Amino acid sequence: MGTILEGVGRVRWHELKHAYGSAADVPGVLSRIAWGDSRASEAALSDLALWIGELAVFDATVAAVPFLWDLAVAESVKSRAGVVELLQAILEHGNPPQPNVQLDAHQAVLSGRPTADRLTHDSDPVVRAAAQDLLAAIDSHLSESRCRV
Predict the structure, then answer these.
(1) CA-CA distance, 107 to 81, in Å (whole number)?
(2) Which of 10, 50, 124, 135 has the greatest number of beta carbons closer than 10 A?
(3) What are the domain boundaries of the chain?
């Protein structure tokens, strides 16, 4: 993973959608998660979760997941455990009318399995616990996918 939110400005967020419409506001929310104090970071994470992962996944979800992985490993981020929990929520939710978006969002989370594994050894016990849950969800998802093939 690189610098926190490196490349976020290259994403055409205004062309993407989240649960409430245009995803043009996602970069600002990601920034508040990355650099806000605990309260601001958690509030921004709560908003983002509603927009991209708690109810369904969207094309903005797919674009946001790599940045979420970066946030999860950045020790300066105050809400890292919540970021890991959001990644798990994304893996557990879908978008039946848009199966390709669902597949892409799930694949984006699954591709971070090595990072999740690394986070299971994090110095923060809350992050470790969230990462262990996410790792179990990733492995379960991968096992289910193999069974369907």
Answers:
(1) 20
(2) 135
(3) 12-148
Q: Distance between CA atoms of 21 and 50, rounded to whole angstroms?
A: 12
Q: Which residues of 73-103 are buried (b: 16+ CB within 10 A; e: fewer)?
A: bbeebbbbbbbbbbbbbbbebbbeebeebbe
- Per the structure block, which two tokens stand in for 105? 């969002």
Closest Cα partner for 100 from 111, 108, 88, 92? Answer: 108
Q: Give CA–CA dist 119/113, Å, rounded.
A: 10
The tens digit of pLDDT for each residue in 12-60 reads 999 999 999 999 999 999 999 999 999 999 999 999 999 999 889 999 9
Closest by CA to 16, choosing from 66, 57, 71, is 57
Q: Are 68 and 115 in contact (CB under 8 A)?
A: no
Q: What is the pTM assigned to this prediction?
A: 0.93
Run of H or E including 17:
strand 17-18
d(CA 58, CA 63): 9
